[in-house]
Design brief:
binds pyridoxal-5'-phosphate, Aspartate Aminotransferase, domain 2, seven-stranded mixed β-sheet, about 475 residues, globular, alpha/beta, 17 helices, pyridoxal phosphate, lyase
């Protein structure tokens, strides 16, 4: 592709994206294909001779788009949003164009230093305690990772390093019986982290929750910790959820910190979805209560904060726990800057070596929308969810299952699991909207997770009208 051709096709690709967004309102939210349809429509072997880029765009429309579930659709209410946005896309594109590998400071200093600044801006924007920020005199800092799952795994490795007195990285997890704690509503990535760390899924304790709020029962945590310690277990990692995936429940981080005080456990806060709402002062106290007592916290700008997947930020109070657990320097990466100690080498802050310039898209988001724009976006999601909550309350056939959490509404049909799931499946099949389900205290519920950057009140009305029609 010549430079001129690249310019021409680059414009065409951006036009394609703008047209794709403009047309979303009129297409079903859910993919309209059966297993294997997309695969069968594509050639079984790559082309011998290169093809014009237009041919790829044409196939995109014809073969790929029908097989997409449209995450940027204004009536996508399933799971949690994965906001893309114009500014993030352009930032991401520039990152691809630069194509730098920021594995260590020396391989591209600006990649590391822009990330340090942007991650610190985000810490300020959310009002995170000072200890998590990268300052000249402090011990903390933040890093962009691909996902919250990786961040949680990384935090667990740091916790093992710390609790083992540094031996875990060299001699492995050993004969110690390590125990990991989260509520029964903790994200599955906690169990996966324990599996990947070689601790095994069975070391993870699923602590009961309060049936009404779905937040961790901290008294139950205390009892389990005491029993485990009596039985020779060593608590290594406790995860508090600030905004669970199922219902948006918020654990009492302060009480959890007090419960584990005196043990060797690391306290990690999983605020993957809800954390970014702390950009609004009215949500900050609730989201950050007790967070100053945590060793680490993760939140995902790639969910509700307009930063095209993937972009997850992990902050720690002591960056040395990460670097001591994960640093390993082969000869070919030795360099004067790293040895001087004057720079940060982010490859020591996560499992992988190579890393993209992800800070570009987060920088673009923060600068283009500003904190005012981000607050307006979060508030719009919360307001629309409050509207959904009213619609549920005004319809006697439905009931809320848990109190609305920020922009997440969990409700069900009063007739039970069968009508609840039937209504949700019929709504999804209509193509008008897409909701996902959960199970709360053994009973099925549907979730409306608002927060797309393209959703308006009219989209809620249209969804609600369709739900009435299919009942
Ligand atoms: C989405 C989510 C995760 C996992 O996020 P990834 O970035 O996809 O790994 C973890 N915890 C909570 C509470 C979540 O909502």
């Amino acid at each position: 592709m010549s430079p001129e051709e690249f310019r021409r096709q680059g414009h065409a690709a951006i036009d394609w994206i703008a047209d794709y967004w403009a047309g979303l309102d009129d297409v079903p939210v859910l993919a309209q294909v059966a297993p294997g349809d997309v695969r069968r429509s594509l050639p079984t072997a790559p082309p011998e001779a290169g093809e014009p880029f237009d041919a790829l765009l044409a196939d995109l429309d014809e073969l790929v788009v029908p097989g997409l579930t449209h995450w940027q659709h204004p009536r996508f209410f399933a799971y949690f949003p994965a906001n893309s946005s114009p500014a993030a896309i352009l930032g991401d594109l520039i990152s691809s164009g630069i194509g730098a590998q920021g594995m260590i400071w020396a391989t591209s200093p600006a990649v590391t230093e822009v990330e340090q600044v942007v991650v610190d801006w985000l810490a300020q924007a959310l009002g995170l305690p000072e200890q998590f920020r990268l300052t000249d005199h402090g011990l903390g800092g933040g890093v962009i990772q691909d996902t919250a799952s990786t961040a949680t795994f990384t935090a667990l490795l740091a916790a093992l390093h710390r609790a083992s007195g540094g031996s875990a990285r060299d001699t492995g997890v050993g004969a110690t019986k390590w125990a990991v704690y989260g509520s029964s509503q903790a994200h599955s990535s906690l169990v996966k982290a324990a599996m990947m760390a070689g601790l095994g899924s069975e070391c993870v304790r699923a602590i009961e929750v309060d049936p009404a709020t779905q937040a961790m029962d901290v008294r139950a945590l205390e009892l389990r910790l005491a029993d485990d310690i009596d039985d020779g277990w060593t608590p290594v990692f406790v995860q508090a959820a600030v905004g669970t995936t199922s219902t948006g429940a918020i654990d009492d981080v302060q009480a959890i910190a007090e419960a584990i005080d005196g043990t060797s456990a690391w306290l990690h806060v999983d605020a993957a979805w809800a954390g970014v709402a702390a950009v609004c002062p009215e949500h900050r106290d609730r989201i950050l209560a007790g967070v100053h007592l945590a060793h680490s916290i993760v939140t995902n700008p790639h969910k509700w904060m307009l930063t095209t997947f993937d972009c997850s930020v992990l902050w720690v109070q002591q960056r040395a726990h990460l670097t001591e657990a994960l640093s390993i320097t082969p000869e070919y990466l030795r360099n004067a800057a790293s040895e001087s100690g004057a720079v940060v080498d982010y490859r020591d802050w996560h499992p992988q070596l190579g890393r993209r310039f992800r800070a570009m898209k987060l920088w673009a988001v923060l600068r283009t929308y500003g904190l005012e724009g981000l607050r307006a976006h979060i508030r719009s999601g919360v307001d629309l969810a409050a509207y959904v909550e009213e619609l549920v309350a005004d319809d006697e056939r439905f009931e809320l299952v848990t109190p609305r959490s920020l922009s997440l509404v969990v409700f069900r049909h009063v007739g039970g699991d069968e009508p609840t799931l039937a209504a949700m499946h019929a709504l999804n099949a209509s193509g008008v909207a897409y909701l996902s389900h959960t199970v709360v205290e053994g009973r099925a519920a549907m979730r409306v997770a608002v927060g797309s950057w393209r959703t308006t009140r009219a989209d809620i009305d249209r969804t609600w009208a369709e739900l009435q029609r299919v009942l």
